[in-house]
Amino acid sequence: MTLHSDVAELLAGAGIVDVDVDDAVADEHVRSSAYQRVVSVTASSRSRDRDRAIVATILRDPLDIVSKTAVAALVDTIAMKVTGPVEFRQWSAELLPEIDQLESEAYREFIRRRIDDWLFHLSIEDGHMPTQAELAKATDWMQRRLAEESTSPAVLALLAESARTKKTRNIAKNRAGSSQLRTE
Question: Alpha-carbon distance 43 to 38, whole Å?
Fold first, then answer.
Protein backbone atom coordinates (compact mmCIF):
# COMPACT_ATOMS: atom_id res chain seq x y z
CA MET A 1 0.00 0.00 0.00
CA THR A 2 1.12 3.54 -0.67
CA LEU A 3 0.29 6.68 1.24
CA HIS A 4 -1.76 7.86 -1.73
CA SER A 5 -3.89 4.71 -1.82
CA ASP A 6 -4.25 4.69 1.99
CA VAL A 7 -5.47 8.30 2.09
CA ALA A 8 -7.78 7.72 -0.88
CA GLU A 9 -9.23 4.59 0.78
CA LEU A 10 -9.80 6.35 4.12
CA LEU A 11 -11.50 9.34 2.50
CA ALA A 12 -13.69 7.17 0.26
CA GLY A 13 -14.65 4.90 3.15
CA ALA A 14 -15.71 7.92 5.20
CA GLY A 15 -17.59 9.46 2.29
CA ILE A 16 -15.35 12.54 2.28
CA VAL A 17 -15.16 13.87 -1.26
CA ASP A 18 -13.96 17.46 -0.78
CA VAL A 19 -10.33 16.66 0.09
CA ASP A 20 -7.81 16.39 -2.73
CA VAL A 21 -5.82 13.20 -2.15
CA ASP A 22 -2.71 14.62 -3.82
CA ASP A 23 -2.83 17.68 -1.55
CA ALA A 24 -3.22 15.45 1.52
CA VAL A 25 -0.27 13.30 0.48
CA ALA A 26 1.92 16.36 -0.15
CA ASP A 27 1.00 18.29 3.02
CA GLU A 28 0.88 16.64 6.45
CA HIS A 29 -1.39 19.42 7.76
CA VAL A 30 -4.00 18.70 5.10
CA ARG A 31 -3.58 14.97 5.76
CA SER A 32 -3.89 15.41 9.52
CA SER A 33 -7.08 17.40 9.06
CA ALA A 34 -8.41 14.71 6.71
CA TYR A 35 -7.61 12.03 9.29
CA GLN A 36 -9.50 13.99 11.94
CA ARG A 37 -12.53 14.07 9.66
CA VAL A 38 -12.19 10.32 9.01
CA VAL A 39 -11.99 9.73 12.77
CA SER A 40 -15.12 11.82 13.32
CA VAL A 41 -17.08 9.86 10.72
CA THR A 42 -15.71 6.56 12.05
CA ALA A 43 -16.58 7.36 15.67
CA SER A 44 -20.11 8.44 14.75
CA SER A 45 -20.82 5.06 13.13
CA ARG A 46 -22.83 2.59 15.19
CA SER A 47 -20.60 -0.24 13.99
CA ARG A 48 -17.11 -0.69 15.37
CA ASP A 49 -16.29 -3.38 12.75
CA ARG A 50 -13.99 -1.19 10.64
CA ASP A 51 -12.16 0.61 13.45
CA ARG A 52 -9.13 -1.72 13.54
CA ALA A 53 -8.64 -1.54 9.77
CA ILE A 54 -8.97 2.26 9.82
CA VAL A 55 -6.46 2.54 12.66
CA ALA A 56 -4.06 0.20 10.82
CA THR A 57 -4.31 2.35 7.71
CA ILE A 58 -3.78 5.61 9.60
CA LEU A 59 -0.81 4.13 11.45
CA ARG A 60 0.94 3.40 8.14
CA ASP A 61 1.37 7.16 7.71
CA PRO A 62 5.09 7.97 7.49
CA LEU A 63 4.74 10.69 10.14
CA ASP A 64 4.06 9.11 13.53
CA ILE A 65 2.87 12.41 15.04
CA VAL A 66 0.13 12.68 12.42
CA SER A 67 -1.07 9.12 12.96
CA LYS A 68 -0.73 9.26 16.77
CA THR A 69 -2.86 12.38 16.92
CA ALA A 70 -5.62 10.83 14.82
CA VAL A 71 -5.65 7.54 16.74
CA ALA A 72 -5.67 9.34 20.10
CA ALA A 73 -8.68 11.37 18.90
CA LEU A 74 -10.48 8.14 17.98
CA VAL A 75 -9.67 6.63 21.39
CA ASP A 76 -10.99 9.75 23.15
CA THR A 77 -14.18 9.87 21.11
CA ILE A 78 -14.99 6.18 21.50
CA ALA A 79 -14.25 6.32 25.25
CA MET A 80 -16.86 9.05 25.61
CA LYS A 81 -19.44 6.98 23.70
CA VAL A 82 -19.13 3.51 25.24
CA THR A 83 -21.43 2.17 27.92
CA GLY A 84 -18.63 1.33 30.34
CA PRO A 85 -15.15 -0.01 30.97
CA VAL A 86 -15.89 -3.55 29.75
CA GLU A 87 -17.01 -2.35 26.33
CA PHE A 88 -14.06 0.03 26.04
CA ARG A 89 -11.57 -2.66 27.14
CA GLN A 90 -12.88 -5.02 24.44
CA TRP A 91 -12.77 -2.29 21.78
CA SER A 92 -9.28 -1.08 22.69
CA ALA A 93 -7.89 -4.63 22.89
CA GLU A 94 -8.70 -4.98 19.19
CA LEU A 95 -6.50 -1.96 18.42
CA LEU A 96 -3.45 -2.86 20.49
CA PRO A 97 -1.82 -5.07 17.82
CA GLU A 98 -2.08 -2.16 15.39
CA ILE A 99 -0.80 0.38 17.92
CA ASP A 100 2.21 -1.86 18.53
CA GLN A 101 3.18 -1.25 14.89
CA LEU A 102 3.94 2.42 15.58
CA GLU A 103 7.64 2.99 15.06
CA SER A 104 8.02 5.47 17.90
CA GLU A 105 8.00 3.83 21.32
CA ALA A 106 6.99 7.16 22.87
CA TYR A 107 3.88 7.36 20.65
CA ARG A 108 2.98 3.71 21.31
CA GLU A 109 3.25 4.42 25.03
CA PHE A 110 1.23 7.63 24.70
CA ILE A 111 -1.72 5.83 23.10
CA ARG A 112 -1.49 2.93 25.56
CA ARG A 113 -1.51 5.39 28.48
CA ARG A 114 -4.49 7.21 26.96
CA ILE A 115 -6.36 3.90 26.81
CA ASP A 116 -5.40 3.12 30.42
CA ASP A 117 -6.54 6.60 31.49
CA TRP A 118 -9.92 6.09 29.87
CA LEU A 119 -10.30 2.65 31.46
CA PHE A 120 -9.60 4.29 34.82
CA HIS A 121 -12.10 7.08 34.11
CA LEU A 122 -14.79 4.67 32.94
CA SER A 123 -14.32 2.41 35.97
CA ILE A 124 -14.86 5.44 38.24
CA GLU A 125 -17.98 6.38 36.28
CA ASP A 126 -19.09 2.79 36.78
CA GLY A 127 -18.86 3.20 40.57
CA HIS A 128 -15.28 2.15 41.36
CA MET A 129 -13.64 4.21 44.10
CA PRO A 130 -9.96 4.49 43.20
CA THR A 131 -7.11 4.12 45.64
CA GLN A 132 -4.23 6.56 45.93
CA ALA A 133 -2.01 4.05 44.12
CA GLU A 134 -4.48 3.79 41.22
CA LEU A 135 -4.78 7.56 41.05
CA ALA A 136 -0.98 7.86 40.95
CA LYS A 137 -0.93 5.74 37.76
CA ALA A 138 -3.28 8.14 35.96
CA THR A 139 -1.71 10.89 33.89
CA ASP A 140 -1.89 14.51 34.99
CA TRP A 141 -4.31 15.04 32.07
CA MET A 142 -6.74 12.42 33.38
CA GLN A 143 -6.42 13.56 36.99
CA ARG A 144 -7.35 17.08 35.93
CA ARG A 145 -10.21 15.83 33.76
CA LEU A 146 -11.61 13.91 36.74
CA ALA A 147 -11.24 16.95 38.98
CA GLU A 148 -13.18 19.03 36.45
CA GLU A 149 -15.91 16.47 35.70
CA SER A 150 -16.43 14.07 38.58
CA THR A 151 -19.58 14.45 40.64
CA SER A 152 -18.42 12.04 43.33
CA PRO A 153 -17.48 13.80 46.58
CA ALA A 154 -15.24 10.85 47.49
CA VAL A 155 -13.35 10.99 44.19
CA LEU A 156 -12.98 14.76 44.47
CA ALA A 157 -11.70 14.41 48.04
CA LEU A 158 -9.10 11.88 46.87
CA LEU A 159 -8.04 14.20 44.05
CA ALA A 160 -7.91 17.21 46.40
CA GLU A 161 -5.57 15.27 48.65
CA SER A 162 -3.50 13.20 46.23
CA ALA A 163 -3.48 14.65 42.70
CA ARG A 164 0.00 15.30 41.37
CA THR A 165 -0.42 18.97 40.50
CA LYS A 166 -1.45 21.81 42.77
CA LYS A 167 -3.86 23.11 40.12
CA THR A 168 -5.69 19.78 39.96
CA ARG A 169 -5.81 19.52 43.77
CA ASN A 170 -7.30 23.02 43.92
CA ILE A 171 -9.89 22.31 41.23
CA ALA A 172 -10.98 19.18 43.10
CA LYS A 173 -11.04 20.97 46.45
CA ASN A 174 -13.13 23.84 45.09
CA ARG A 175 -15.56 21.52 43.32
CA ALA A 176 -15.87 19.27 46.38
CA GLY A 177 -17.02 22.28 48.42
CA SER A 178 -19.39 23.61 45.78
CA SER A 179 -23.10 23.64 46.53
CA GLN A 180 -23.78 22.86 42.86
CA LEU A 181 -22.02 19.50 43.23
CA ARG A 182 -24.25 18.53 46.14
CA THR A 183 -27.36 19.16 44.01
CA GLU A 184 -26.17 17.22 40.93
Answer: 9
Total number of residues shown for the chain: 184
For 45-48, the CB contacts below 8 A with 24+ separation are: 48/78, 48/91, 48/94
pLDDT by residue (tens digit) across 62-117?
Answer: 999 999 999 999 999 999 999 999 999 999 999 999 999 888 999 999 999 999 99
State pLDDT tens for residues 3-18.
Answer: 999 999 999 999 999 9
Burial of residue 117, with CB atoms counted within 10 A of its CB: 0-12 exposed, 13-18 middle, 19 or more buried:
buried
